């Protein structure tokens, strides 16, 4: 059975690393452009000059205690003034960037399950009374490899499954005459993945689930499948894509800031 790290040379990971590099460059450029148009460039330049002057005073008059103490106070005030000037454009960048990263993580954060790889499907119920009534309806290509495990303390029932072939499946958890579906992807490459399907909880679903909400019911709260994490090879190091994105987008931002002459 292949592990997530064994896919480092596959087309999916190569594509993923290229996508992260490309998006990082674009986001770095856009952040600099947005900052330049939404900030007071002259005021930021003046605030940075004052801060540099106070730092220089520390070095020149370090043997004069009263000057040093006064300079420290001015440095704190100058830093606060700079942050006040920078916070508004940063917020305008951070909010849409957060939602973009949530969507990108659906593709770049995990890899699909592999054929022959056992995985767990967990259904979380409203109450432990429903645990014994829960069963699975499996499509062709998926089979159970062990009896379900019921955890009354957590209101959960867990099944261990395996896929015989690649594909996109819908597994149904059945309680009485009601069915609750969960999408599962088996294969390779870049696929849109969602580890959990939730009932209600709109804001939580935006950040952690890429599937429609479960229908309103008083039986099932969530159905979850854990996908293996994706590692991206870049510069001889295996990265989580978010860390790689932050490093590259910050580097691109500082590069474009110098090229465009933007004060940050």
SSE succession? HHHEEEEEEEEHEEEH
* Overall 3D shape: elongated
Report, as a whole number of angstroms, the end-to-end distance.
49 Å
Helix content, binned percent? 40-55%
Structural class: alpha+beta
Number of strands: 11
Query: Count of DSSP helices?
Result: 5
Which range does the strand content fall in? 15-25%
Low-confidence stretches: 1-13
State Rg: 26 Å
Q: Report on the biggest sheet.
A: 6 strands, antiparallel
Brief account:
This protein has helices spanning 11-38, 41-60, 65-108, 202-208, 241-260; strands spanning 119-125, 134-137, 142-144, 149-151, 156-163, 167-175, 178-186, 196-198, 220-225, 232-234, 237-239. With 264 residues, it is an alpha+beta fold.
Give a description of the structure:
- Helices cover 45% and strands 22% of the residues.
- The chain has 264 residues and is an alpha+beta fold.
- The chain folds into two domains: 4-110 and 233-260, no CATH class; 119-225, no CATH class.
- Strand 10 (232-234) and strand 11 form a beta hairpin.
- Helix 2 (41-60) crosses helix 3.
- The longest helix is centred in the first third of the chain and has 44 residues, at 65-108.
- Residues 1-13 have low confidence and may be disordered.
């Amino acid at each position: 059975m292949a592990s997530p790290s064994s896919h480092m040379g596959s087309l999916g990971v190569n594509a993923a690393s290229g996508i992260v590099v490309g998006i990082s460059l674009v986001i770095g450029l856009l952040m600099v452009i947005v900052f330049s148009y939404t900030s007071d460039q002259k005021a930021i330049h003046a605030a940075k000059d004052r801060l540099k002057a106070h730092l220089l005073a520390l070095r020149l008059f370090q043997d004069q205690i009263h000057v040093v103490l006064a300079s420290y106070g001015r440095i704190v005030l100058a830093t606060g003034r700079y942050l006040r000037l920078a916070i508004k454009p940063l917020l305008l960048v951070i909010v849409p960037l957060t939602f973009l990263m949530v969507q990108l993580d659906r593709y770049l954060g995990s890899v699909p399950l592999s054929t022959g790889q056992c995985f767990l499907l967990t259904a979380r119920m409203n109450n432990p009374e429903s645990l014994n009534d829960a069963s699975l309806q499996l499509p062709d290509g998926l089979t159970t490899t062990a009896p379900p495990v019921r955890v009354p303390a957590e209101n959960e029932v867990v099944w261990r499954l395996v896929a015989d072939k690649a594909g996109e499946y819908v597994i149904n958890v059945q309680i009485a005459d009601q069915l609750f579906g969960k999408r599962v992807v088996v294969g390779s490459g870049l696929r849109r993945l969602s580890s959990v399907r939730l009932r209600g909880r709109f804001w939580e679903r935006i950040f952690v689930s890429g599937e429609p909400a479960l229908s309103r019911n008083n039986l099932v709260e969530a159905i979850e499948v854990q996908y293996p994490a994706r590692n991206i090879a870049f510069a001889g190091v295996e990265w989580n894509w978010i860390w790689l994105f932050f490093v590259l987008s910050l580097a691109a931002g500082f590069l474009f800031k110098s090229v465009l002459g933007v004060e940050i």
